Amino acid sequence: MNIVAKPVEDTPIGVSFADDPASLSTFLQPASAAVVWRRHIPADMQAWLDGLDPGVLPCGRIVVPSDVVGDTVAHLFEESGLPKGTERDWLHQDIVSLANTFSALIQAKFLRVRLAAVTTNACRKFHIDAITARLVCTYRGMGTQYGTSHDGHDPSRVFTVPTGSPILLRGTLWPAEPPAGLLHRSPPIEGTGETRLVLVLDPVFDPEEEA
């Protein structure tokens, strides 16, 4: 049976929405540019994330085998001083689950894992990443923004991924033609007092090139 993620009216061409992990397989179809997994972080977990001191939000970037993402994330949690408890356990398991789902879909034995606490306008320009594919999940704060442009200008309509909803994006190294023209950016938040917590996963097919 073919599982197809649902397009949404007024959404850019090539962007679809999935309601469960299995539907993310739509990302592999030729016409896909991105898939958003529509889900909600449990209210108590979201309240915990939003209430954390920004100073304890985990940050780091490392390339690891996909089967040791859990150990890596646990280390980042310890280094940051993220409070222990059921909420931290939930966040750990959710990141591991996303990593497992993404690596299986893309068939990548290694992942570049990045956790970042963002307060600036870094990556505020609309762009396409020079990678094969990417998963982005914003656990706290405003989600990734996206839109379509074929003339080099910013998209005329900008869409925002809901907090807690992962988005899978194709990069310029994805072997697909013609390009969909889908651009994305981190939302400009500098000066607002907002601190985002963002998880980024990239497949790595040759870890020696990352050394």
Secondary structure layout plus pairing:
Blueprint: E1 15-18, E2 34-37, H1 43-51, E3 60-65, H2 69-80, H3 86-106, E4 110-118, E5 133-140, E6 145-148, E7 159-160, E8 167-170, E9 182-185, E10 196-204
Parallel strand pairs: 1-2
Antiparallel strand pairs: 2-8, 3-4, 4-10, 5-8, 5-10, 6-7, 6-9
Helix pairs in contact: 2-3
Descriptive report:
The chain is α+β, with helices and mostly antiparallel strands.
Short description:
This protein is α+β, with helices and mostly antiparallel strands and 211 residues long.
Q: What is the number of E strands?
A: 10
What is the alpha-carbon Rg in Å?
A: 17 Å
Average pLDDT reading: 91
Inertia-based shape = globular
The profile of the biggest β sheet is: 7 strands, mixed
What is the tally of helical segments?
A: 3
The side-by-side strand order for the widest beta sheet comes to 1-2-8-5-10-4-3
Q: Which parts are unreliable, with pLDDT below 50 for 5 consecutive residues or more?
A: 1-8
Query: SS-based structural class?
Result: alpha+beta
* Element-by-element helix/strand order: EEHEHHEEEEEEE
How many angstroms separate the termini? Answer: 41 Å
Note the beta-strand portion: 25-35%
Work out the helicity level. Answer: 10-25%
